[in-house]
Known about the structure:
The protein is an alpha+beta fold. The protein has helices at residues 2-16, 45-68, 97-100, 229-238, and strands at residues 69-76, 79-89, 92-95, 103-109, 115-116, 118-124, 130-134, 153-158, 166-177, 186-190, 202-204, 210-217, 224-228, 241-243. The longest helix is centred in the N-terminal third of the chain and has 24 residues, at 45-68.
Amino acid sequence: xxxxxxxxxxxxxxxxxxxxxxxxxxxxxxxxxxxxxxxxxxxxxxxxxxxxxxxxxxxxxxxxxxxxxxxxxxxxxxxxxxxxxxxxxxxxxxxxxxxxxxxxxxxxxxxxxxxxxxxxxxxxxxxxxxxxxxxxxxxxxxxxxxxxxxxxxxxxxxxxxxxxxxxxxxxxxxxxxxxxxxxxxxxxxxxxxxxxxxxxxxxxxxxxxxxxxxxxxxxxxxxxxxxxxxxxxxxxxxxxxxxxxxxxxx
Length: 250
């Protein structure tokens, strides 16, 4: 194609200058075209083709995790404390009782810095859970998943140390009796890294569904502790809630 293009351009130049052209005699044999040999497909092509959908699914789940999780600032008689919370519907957040306890004022911030006003807040009577109701719509909503089995991959979403939102991954180690930790029901232990400020944040399974609520770190093992989804669902369904404890009452 390059050779033919050059000939045509040369032809136009000669005609424009008034020169006479004599056509060359046709070739004795028609031109031949060589077909390139077939190359076998890369054996990794199938695997590579699957990377993009998997990456897109992961990115979508992470975006949803950011939207559903907010930072809580609790201003009370003991100063300012921070924790995390996540949305169950467009106006309802789940967090920990101890994140809300003693609050004179609660401030909610989304991952992009938007501040959301609080309408009301209450806490669980028998378990370390709290519920916050917002005046404005929340940017994203989470959904319950099935019970997480031992060895399942999970991700913890929250605002450690009151800083930017993080997503840390780990696995479920086991479920133990919650009496040791003052929790009515089982407690889920996980290898995901958590820090102060992660309290109240969601534990998500590999498809982004809620399987627990972070509430503490086990000092002896360093494992993260979470209230499993079945306990959470039971409490929300029963409505076993009370007003936020006043400062110094716990």
